[in-house]
Specification:
The protein contains twelve helices and no strands. By secondary structure, it is an all-alpha fold. The protein has two domains: 223 residues, MFS general substrate transporter like domains (Growth Hormone, Chain: A); 105 residues, no CATH class. Helix 1 runs antiparallel to helix 2, helix 2 crosses helix 8 and helix 11 packs antiparallel against helix 12.
C-alpha cells in the first residue's frame, strides 16, 4: 500500500480529529475547574466555559462561509496552531502565577490571570468553531462516495469517545495532579494533530474561486433560515436544548463541589458517565425513530430530557448524578 493511499489519508485525518477532540474533552473539565479555583462566584465560574461556547453562537454561520472559500486543510492546520499556542500560553501563565490565591466568594483575587484566561478561552473556542466546520467538509474529498457513510461513522465514534468519554476523565485526573498540566498536555496534543494533518494529501480547496460578497452570502443564509419554517423550528429547538445543556454543564462544576463534595476526578467521571448515555443513544437512536416515527420520537425524547433536568439537583451522589446525566444524553 502506498504511503499516500486514500486509506492512509483517511486514517491520518480521523486520528488527527480524534486527538483534537480528546484535547477538547480535556479542556471541558480543565477550564471550568480552574475557574472554580480562582473564584467561588457563580457568575465568574460560568464566564470561563461560556467563553469556550460563545463562538459557536457568534461564528457558526461565518465559519461556514469561510470554509466554503478556503483550503479546508490549511484552515484546520491554522486553527490547530492557534490552539497549540493558546493552550501553551495558558499553561505558562498559570504556572507563573502559582501558588494561586484563595478564591473569593465574589469576584476573584487574581483579576489579571482570570481576564487573560478568559481571552485565551475565547480564542480557543473560536478556533474550534472554524476547525470543526472545515473538518466536516473534508471527508468527501478523501474517500469515495460509497465509503462516505462508513468513514463518517468512524469519525463520529473517534470524536465522541475522545471529546465526551476519555477527555473529561483525563482532564480531571491531570488538573487534580498539577493545575497547569492539562493545558500543557493540550498544547502537545495539538502539535501532534498538526503533524498528522500535514501528511493528509488531497484537493481541499473550493472548486471555483469567485468574488461573492461574504456579507451578502451571510444575509442569504439568514433569509433562507427565516423562510424555511421547519428548518427554523428545528434550529430553535436545537438551540434551546443546547442552551439548557450548557447551563447544566456550567452549573455542574459548583454543584459537584459544594453539594456533593466531589473532587475534580469525580467531576470528570460524572461527565464521562453522561457520555455513555450519548454513545448508547447514537447506537439505538435510529431503531427508536423507526419504531416510533420521527415526530413521536422527538416529542417523547424531549419529555425525557425535561424529566432528567428535574432529577439533576435531587441526585444524592456522583453515581446517581452520572446515571441521570446519561439518561439526559440518551435522547439527544
Amino acid at each position: 500500500m502506498s504511503a499516500y493511499s486514500p486509506s492512509s489519508h483517511l486514517s491520518r485525518f480521523i486520528l488527527a480529529s480524534g486527538v483534537a477532540n480528546l484535547a477538547d474533552g480535556i479542556a471541558l473539565v480543565a477550564w471550568a475547574w480552574l475557574a472554580s479555583l480562582l473564584s467561588r462566584d457563580p457568575i465568574f465560574v460560568a464566564l470561563m466555559p461560556m467563553m469556550l461556547r460563545l463562538p459557536w453562537f457568534l461564528f457558526a454561520l461565518p465559519a461556514g462561509i469561510v470554509t466554503d472559500r478556503m483550503d479546508r486543510r490549511r484552515l484546520i492546520l491554522a486553527m490547530d496552531v492557534v490552539r497549540t499556542v493558546s493552550f501553551g500560553a495558558a499553561a505558562l501563565i498559570v504556572w507563573a502565577s502559582m501558588p494561586l490565591s484563595a478564591p473569593l466568594e465574589s469576584g476573584t483575587a487574581m483579576p489579571m490571570l482570570f481576564g487573560t484566561l478568559l481571552v485565551l478561552a475565547l480564542v480557543v473556542g473560536t478556533a474550534e468553531v472554524f476547525r470543526d466546520n472545515a473538518a466536516q467538509t473534508m471527508l468527501p474529498a478523501i474517500v469515495a462516495h460509497e465509503q462516505l457513510e462508513r468513514a463518517n461513522g468512524r469519525l463520529w465514534s473517534v470524536e465522541l469517545v475522545g471529546n465526551a468519554l476519555l477527555g473529561p476523565a483525563l482532564g480531571a485526573f491531570l488538573i487534580t495532579s498539577v493545575i497547569w498540566l492539562p493545558f500543557a498536555l493540550n498544547s502537545v496534543v495539538f502539535v501532534f494533530a498538526v503533524i498528522l494533518m500535514v501528511g493528509v494529501k488531497g484537493q481541499f480547496s473550493p472548486d471555483r474561486a469567485d468574488s461573492r460578497s461574504w456579507w451578502a452570502e451571510l444575509q442569504q443564509g439568514l433569509v433562507f433560515l427565516r423562510n424555511a419554517t421547519l428548518l427554523r423550528l428545528l434550529a430553535i429547538l436545537t438551540g434551546v436544548w443546547n442552551l439548557l445543556h450548557q447551563m447544566v454543564v456550567i452549573a455542574l462544576v459548583l454543584h459537584v463541589q459544594e453539594n456533593l463534595g466531589l473532587e475534580a476526578w469525580g467531576y470528570g467521571l460524572v461527565l464521562a458517565g453522561a457520555a455513555v448515555g450519548g454513545i448508547v443513544g447514537g447506537f439505538v437512536g435510529d431503531r427508536v425513530v423507526k419504531w416510533m416515527g420521527p415526530g413521536t420520537a422527538a416529542q417523547w425524547m424531549t419529555l425525557a430530557s425535561a424529566l432528567a433536568f428535574i432529577a439533576i439537583p435531587f441526585s444524592p451522589n456522583g453515581i446517581v448524578l452520572a446515571l441521570v446525566l446519561a439518561a439526559f444524553e440518551l435522547p439527544g
